[in-house]
């Protein structure tokens, strides 16, 4: 009996767990779901067969972790990146396959030689972004190259957004993934290649004068560069490409508001505020006085920004009561309350690849787009597009359809062909359209 061990039963795990339960039923496999939250495990495994086991564990406990991993054939981790490496080391020692949706960071990459020598697979970046973005882009890139095309510009955009029918706040945004990641997004700035020039943007610059991306059948969305695009240029086999940019999509108004939050230092991470018995209004006054002295010295706010701040409730007398906090901690708490998906809200995933290439001395431009909407606040598009690639890959590995070993991200046909085929059978499909060549890049 095959045995899959999943670490993590949070928001992004809902659809993955449902998929794994179906594997247990149809293939007579054993599934173990380990998390520190008993309620979350119980909710997501209600009605599951006896071959699906939920365990409440302290994931920092080496004894519990190693015992569970030793009993499994394959491990999936949806834990924060700080715990991935601990799990990865245990998987390496026990000779178990590991799948994650997180970036293959420098620490993880140090294990690559040992993973290959052990003859096991560590497949990272196997979610949505990163994950589906890699697979869909590489399929398109390889198709163009197989026809003899030479790619001169590659732009890839992705965003976890709120569906238009559930968009009812001035931020045009609701949280469908890890709230902390919303706060931290863009903090490290970005580096990318545009028209042959390497460009760097600071955190604040990311949200200035944002380029708009036209999405079929939807409004235009703003994009900002995401992390280090250049890392993927060689991995995508596009070392000669003059423009290579990976971006995050947001509503244009969100970027305007977030730029203002940065200017107010509301994403700062220094823990300086004792929030017990401190109201939001008092915090805001204390915080702005710390940086600007008087309220009259605050950066000028547009009518839109004033509406956005009002919506977040910084003028309310609601008590925070979260102990010693940073401004970022408080902002996260605010967003979790004010920008939460309501029970019947729908989130939305948008992914768009824009590729310019030359073929037979002519310039062509193709746009490949994916739009996925959630059903409600539990069965979200985010959970679906993060979880299903992991579940499908796990099944394919244990069935022998994927036989690769070593540390990988899913950029080769051995990964993307079978996974994308199954995703398409589940309705997660890209639409391609050719358009007239205009320009490339994201600068104004």
Automatic annotation (TrEMBL):
- What biological process terms from GO does the record include? lysine biosynthetic process via aminoadipic acid
Q: Name one Pfam family in it.
A: Sacchrp_dh_C
- Domain Saccharopine dehydrogenase NADP binding span(s) in chain numbering: 4-121
KW Oxidoreductase (keyword) present = yes
Return one GO MF term.
Answer: saccharopine dehydrogenase activity
Question: Its GO CC terms?
Answer: cytoplasm
Nucleotide-binding among keywords: no
Q: Which Gene3D superfamilies match?
A: Dihydrodipicolinate Reductase, domain 2, Domain 3, Saccharopine reductase, NAD(P)-binding Rossmann-like Domain
**Database matches in InterPro entries:** AASS, NAD(P)-bd_dom_sf, Sacchrp_dh-like_C, Sacchrp_dh_NADP-bd
Q: Which UniProt keywords apply?
A: Oxidoreductase
What range(s) does the Saccharopine dehydrogenase-like C-terminal domain occupy?
127-428
Q: What is this protein called?
A: Saccharopine dehydrogenase
UniProt source species: Filimonas zeae
Which taxonomic lineage does the organism of this UniProt entry have? Bacteria, Pseudomonadati, Bacteroidota, Chitinophagia, Chitinophagales
